[in-house]
Write a structure and sequence with these properties.
homodimer, about 325 residues, alpha/beta, 434 Repressor (Amino-terminal Domain), Rossmann fold, 6-stranded parallel beta sheet, 4-stranded parallel beta sheet, DNA-binding, transcription (chains A, B)
Chain lengths: ~325, ~325
DNA sequence: TTGAAAGCGCTAACAG
DNA sequence: CTGTTAGCGCTTTCAA
C-alpha cells in the first residue's frame, strides 16, 4: 500500500480510505488511486486489514452435510448472495455427533469470521449462546436459533397441506415416514413436519395407529425399508406421507419392487421438491431452497450493518406440487 | 496472548512457540501454557498470525457449481481431508463466463489463502499462470492445470471401456451425447470422454456418422432433447453413450415417454455413477468422487510442505458398472 | 530452552 | 479533504 501511496503521491491513509470505499476522499483522488492500485496489481492484505480493524471480511457457514441436495443448494444460494459483496465464505461441516462436539469445543470460526450462518442444525439455547458469545451475529437457515435471525419455511404448515391433499383425495389410512439424523434423533424440521401431519390428521378426526408411524435414517435406503415395514402391517395404509423426497424415493423403490403402482395402489407424498421428484412424478411440497441461502446472505449482511432491510425472521412459502404418485384410493 | 504469557509466567514468544507447535519449548512448559490457554478460552488471532508469518492458514477452492452432485461431493471430500489439519476452507464459485472472468480479474483469493484447488475447470496456461503467479500452489481436481499437481480419473479410458461394453454386447450403431458447459463449449472431461468414445469405435472399425453425435447442455433436459434428436434420425442407433449420468437420465426419460424400454429397445450408458444411477438401473462408469476431494486435500497439504507423500499426479481408477439399461441389441 | 524486540501491512483516531 | 501516527496481536530473528 505504501507503494501505491508513493506512486499516487498521496498519504497512506488516503489510499486506505480510497480502497476501502470510505468517505472523505475526493472522487478525483479516489479514481486516481484506484487506477494506480490496479496498475500495480495491488490487493489489500486481509490479514493486516483485519488486524487493524477487527473485521475479517468473511462469514462462515456451518452445515451438517455438504453433498446433499438441500445443503449444497443452500450453499449455492449463500454464495450467490455474498459474491457481490466481496465477503469470503468459510465452509464448516459437522456431520456426526463427534464432529459437532469438536466444532463446539474448538470453535474454529473464532476470530476468523464476522458472522456465522448455521444451516439445518437445531441448537439449544446454550449452544447458540456458545456461538453468539464471541460477539458475532449468528443466523439460522432452515433452523431456529433462540434469539437469532432466521430464514426458513413453515414445515408444519407444509406437512399439513400435504396431508390435507391426501385426505381431500379420500384417504383415511395415512401413514408417515419420519427421518432420523446421523445421530439417530429427529431433526427440528422432522419434528415440525410430524406435528403438521398429526395436526392435519386430527383436523379430519383421523386416527394414527402406532403402526402407521415409521422411522428411518434419512435417505433412499431408509425410505425403502420403512415402506417395506408399512406394507407388512396387518392393515396397510392407502397413503404415505414422507418427511423428505429422498425417503419418498426409497418408498417408491419398494413399491416398484413389490409390483405396486404408486398413485393407483398406494399414494406417496414427499417433501422438498428434490430435482428427482419431477422425474419420478412424485407429488411433494416444494420449498424455495436456493432462496433460503440467498436470503440468509441478506440477513448476514444486515446483521453486519451492511445490508438493507433487516428482518428478524423470514418465513418463505411452500407450495403443494401434485404429480402422479398421489390419487384417490381404489374402491372408494 | 499477552494474558496467557502473564498467566503462565513466561515470555510472549514462548507462548507463541508453544501454541504454534514449534520446537524449542520444553514439554513441561508447553503443557502448562496449553492448559492456561484453554482455561482462558484463548484462541490465536489468525489475522495477527497471518500478518506476522505471511501464512493464512486457509486454502481456497474454486468450483464451477456448488449444487451439483459431482462438485458438492468433491467439496465434501476436500473438507473431510482438511478438517483435521485446522486449515480453513474458502469457497469460490465461478459459474458463468462473466463470473469466471470476474474471478480472474479480481483474484479474490490473493493474500487470503495459502493454496488453491481448482475443480473441473480447464484453464489455459496463461490462466494457470495468473493463479499460480501469486506464489501459492495451485492444484487441479478433475482438471489438469499445466505444470501443477493433479488428481482425477482417466476420462478417455473410462469412456472407451463404456463403449467397449456396448460393442461387446453386439452393438454397432452407437451414438454419443456430448455435454456442453454453461458457456456452450465442451469441458475438458467432455473432450476426453469423447476421445475415448471415438477411440473405442475406431478400434472395432465402427463408423460414427455425424447424426450419431448429439450435443446438449449439461443436465436432464439437455439429455432428453438430445435423445429425442437421436431417435428422430433416419436410422436410429441401438445404443447411446452419454457423457454424464444426468444426461443419461434425461435420455431415459425420453425413452420412457416414447414407450421404449431401456436395454431392450435401446441401450443407454452413463458416466459417473450418480446416486440416481442405481435407482434408475442405469449402466455407467463409476469414478471415486469423494476420494478426489480427499486426495486433493492431501495434494494441497503436500504442496504446503505439511503433507506426507507428494505426488505430481494421481489418476484414480474407474469401474464399469453394468445394470439394466444395457443389453444386447434385438434381432442380433 | 527462554526472553526481548523489531516489524508484518494495515485502520482509525487525531491534527491540520 | 488530506496527512501523521499509534497501535492491532502475532511471529521471528537475535541474544542470553
Amino acid at each position: 500500500m505504501a507503494d501505491v501511496a508513493r506512486s499516487a503521491q498521496v498519504a497512506l491513509s488516503t489510499v486506505s480510505r480510497a480502497l476501502g470505499g470510505k468517505p472523505g476522499v475526493s472522487e478525483e483522488q479516489r479514481a486516481r488511486i484506484l487506477a494506480v492500485a490496479r496498475e500495480l496489481d495491488y490487493a489489500v492484505s486481509p490479514a493486516a486489514s483485519g488486524l487493524a480493524s477487527g473485521r475479517t471480511g468473511a462469514v462462515g457457514v456451518l452445515v451438517p452435510h455438504i453433498d446433499r441436495w438441500f445443503h449444497s443448494t443452500v450453499l449455492a444460494g449463500l454464495e450467490d448472495g455474498l459474491r457481490e459483496t466481496g465477503m469470503d465464505l468459510l465452509l464448516y461441516r459437522a456431520e456426526s455427533a463427534g464432529e459437532r462436539s469438536a466444532f463446539f469445543s474448538a470453535l474454529p470460526f473464532r476470530r476468523r469470521v464476522d458472522a456465522l450462518a448455521v444451516v439445518a442444525i437445531s441448537l439449544s439455547e446454550a449452544e447458540t449462546a456458545a456461538l453468539a458469545g464471541h460477539g458475532i451475529p449468528v443466523i439460522g437457515i432452515s433452523c431456529r436459533l433462540p434469539g437469532q435471525r432466521f430464514v426458513g419455511i413453515d414445515d408444519a404448515a407444509g406437512a399439513a397441506a400435504a396431508v390435507r391433499h391426501l385426505t381431500n383425495l379420500g384417504h383415511r389410512r395415512i401413514a408417515v415416514i419420519r427421518t432420523t439424523t446421523v445421530t439417530g434423533s429427529y431433526g427440528a424440521a422432522s419434528a415440525e413436519r410430524y406435528r403438521g401431519y398429526r395436526q392435519a390428521m386430527a383436523e379430519r378426526g383421523l386416527e394414527v395407529p402406532d403402526a402407521y408411524v415409521a422411522s428411518a435414517p434419512w435417505g433412499v435406503e431408509g425410505g425403502a425399508e420403512a415402506m417395506a415395514q408399512l406394507l407388512a402391517s396387518s392393515r396397510p395404509p392407502t397413503a404415505v406421507f414422507c418427511e423428505s423426497d429422498e425417503v419418498a424415493i426409497g418408498a417408491l423403490r419398494t413399491l416398484r419392487r413389490s409390483n405396486l403402482v404408486p398413485g393407483r395402489d398406494l399414494s406417496v407424498m414427499g417433501f422438498d421438491d428434490h430435482l428427482m421428484a419431477d422425474l419420478l412424478d412424485l407429488s411433494t411440497v416444494a420449498q424455495p431452497v436456493q432462496d433460503q441461502g440467498r436470503i440468509g446472505a441478506d440477513l448476514l449482511l444486515a446483521a453486519l450493518g451492511r445490508g438493507e432491510a433487516d428482518r428478524p425472521e423470514v418465513v418463505l412459502p411452500t407450495r403443494l406440487v401434485v404429480r402422479g404418485t398421489t390419487a384417490s384410493p381404489q374402491g372408494r
